[in-house]
Design a protein that fits this description.
The complex is a heterodimer of chains A (517) and B (314). Chain A is mostly helical. Chain A has helices at residues 27-38, 40-55, 59-83, 90-98, 100-136, 140-143, 149-168, 175-202, 224-238, 242-246, 257-284, 302-311, 315-346, 365-385, 389-415, 424-451, 468-490, 492-495; strands at residues 462-463, 466-467. Chain A has one domain: Up-down Bundle (Amino acid/polyamine transporter I), CATH 1.20.1740. In chain A, 67% of the residues lie in helices and 1% in strands. Chain A has a two-stranded antiparallel sheet with strand order 1-2. By secondary structure, chain B is of the alpha/beta class. Chain B has a single domain (3-45, 52-297), classed as Rossmann fold. Chain B is built from eight helices and ten strands. In chain B, strands 3-2-1-4-5-10-9-6-7-8 form a ten-stranded mixed beta sheet, sandwiched between helices. The two termini of chain B are 16 Å apart. The chains are: A mainly alpha (517), B alpha/beta (314). At the A-B interface, helix 1, helix 8 and helix 13 of A face strand 2, helix 2, strand 3 and helix 3 of B.
Chain lengths: 517, 314
Amino acid sequence: MSILKKSGVAADQTLSSKGLSAGSVGLVGAVVIGISCIAPAYTLTGALGPTIAQVGTHLPAIFLVGFIPMLLVAFGYRELNSAMPDSGTSFTWGVRAFGPWVGWMAGWGLVVATIVVLSNLAGIAVDFFYLLLGQVFSDPSIADLAADPLINVVTCLAFMAGATVISYRDMQTTQKVQYWLVGFQLLVLVGFAIVAFVKVGAGSAFDATAVSPDWFNPLTVPTFSAFAAGLSLSIFIFWGWDVTLTMSEETSGSRTTPGRAATLTVVIIVLVYLLVSLASMTFAGLGTDGVGLGNPDIQGNAFSALAGPVLGPLAILMSLAVLSSSAASLQSTFVSPARTLLAMGHYGALSPKFARVSPRFFTPGYATLASAIVASAFYAVMRFISEDVLWDTITTLGMMICFYYGLTAFACVWYFRHQWRSGARNLFFQIVAPGVGGLILAVLFVTTLVDSMDPDYGSGSQIGGVGLVFLLGVTILLGGVVVMLVNARLRPAFFRGEGLRAGVAGDEREGQAALPE
Amino acid sequence: MRRVVVGYLDTPAGHDALALGTALAHTLGVGLDLVMVLHDRGRASLVPAAPSYERHLDDLAEGWLQEAAAGLPTEVASTTHVVRAETFAEGLVRAATELRADAVVIGAGKEGALGRLHLGSVGGVLVHSAPVPLAVAPGGFAERGVRRFGRVTAAVGTRAGARAVVDTAVATASSAGAALRLVSLVPLDAVGDGHRRDRDDRERALHDEARQHAERMRDIALEGVPDDLDVTVEIAPGPRVGDAIDALAWRDDELALVGSSRLAQPHRLFLGSVAAKFVRGVPVPLVVVPRDHDARTTWTGAAPDGAHPEGTTP
């Protein structure tokens, strides 16, 4: 495509570049973006139930431990990002480390993981949308509309279409609105926790359960399978945090801002997670009836069941918090598969159509539409074949994140393999940290994959005696292999390593993997 | 040399703007500054900024601009600029200020009813904030193949700002060697209802006023124009501005001028209600002139068609 080539004609330099840095992201701004990407209200309502189903009362321990592999891999992510800043992220780095085939699959993993989360996000938003309407009109029967598959799918597609338009047209909320949204979200979560504790103290809780030190001990999780499944879910709850580490080029002020922003973000997030999960567990217990967190009927969307009993008439605030959190996350998540697909199209790993940038809105238009269509179709199909679509998508998502994050971590180790002699800092951040993180994720991925063959795994959705999550995971990955082989026939140049190819840190091709050169 | 900023996008509206800029260049000998506005990197965004994607956009934008510049006729001088700003309108205003441009050219975007002008969101903002005249190409202008303008029409009301429009139109027409048409826009819809007898009287009075106004305008115009300039004066008939505009005959190679409202801050455009109706009804490119605009600063210092002493053709 001619538009991609670097033009030889220099532009007039009469325009000053003032304004470029005027609104640079500061410390607070970076924290707000980080929290907004993680979307704690949405994440908690989606992940609380499935994680409890795996590890029971050890939820707080798993939430704490789940941060470790995330942190280790994020270090590698940051190193790769500063060596090869490229929109293709995992795809580009995978190719540069391991060559076109593995890189292609890493890109595929990223794209499908984000597409799965898009469908889950929209699904959660649908539940809370009808819950909110029910609360506004004081008519609980409206909230039940979300259970009707047809209404549910149609509403979800409408939400998805809205999010697509916003992404395609690159419509942004102002910074003030973002601050309010994030502040509101945190306030509601903390308020929810406080009210729950007060009710436990007053004896009006659903099933008051005393906090025990054992909840914080990851070693007493009964089986390794449960531990692994819980961990892969809790990686999902920190997913998105890594953006605060890679915003380095955008943050204003000193070099330490990104690091401080990332630390501050994760401290806030961990505190909120612990507070809310402890509050939910002490208030509702882990029983299998009513709003007990062990009840499979509410595990796909915990707050939708808990908000009423805890907050009473103020439950509407929780609906608003989760809805706004999902909306913000929908918007920031849409960008990720679109930019990776753009890079894949650009380097010839996919049809060049994916490299198209809308000349009016300057967004990867074709890739955005493609992601939206696939995510919508995925949700619609899942809603009809799965007994518990939200739960199953979250579990599948955990597995996919382990897959592509693991590959990315190994890509970091392999790409920087000659760097270990150049000092302890490089040895730790480029090799040891991502290496250990990658190993943990690989173990989690394999364990989850094997365990999920069991039809009773997770929500218990199954087809022909095989767990649905396993079928989904395998279908998605094998589907990726098929699509890759088709593309290898159609576009052999990329797979022969012409253009983007494998190498190591410091080689002459280092600068090559930076769009658009 | 005189120059105008063309707000360019590789879209139909952008191509219309480019075509209008080219026609102005042929008519008045102005140079073109092709400006593409990308969003500010540091803007508030829920989406984490990706520096690599932003660099990719910079290069794409530069490529689109070069392509556009390369497609211009060789005698049209041009430069290209990528600007980062919160909004398209803000970027164009800043570019016009920094480049000391004499006008900003944009495309109206999606076609209004029957090929008439309709200001898109960008035009809507610009028309209320630009410090220089704003030229708007109607949708589909690029396909009309207008190479240069043969007639300049100024629509003039009685309020403050009329003088700036007449002067600018005279300067434009004489610089272009084009015919000049002055249209009196005395709001005949002010007649209102009331007693029949009363209305007839008031209508007659208004028509008289319009004629006098038109004649005054012509006298003003004739003071400042060369003898060989073809000047006509028309009173737009019809009870409402919309009808009046519909009744006017338009040539293909016509350029329309209208003044901005007295509500505007000094040196800023603001479209008054009459002018806004005019904008919606006009089928040809339209220039909105700030009320305190000094005609001597409008693209008239240019050499006649074809000669570009400092031309920097790509």
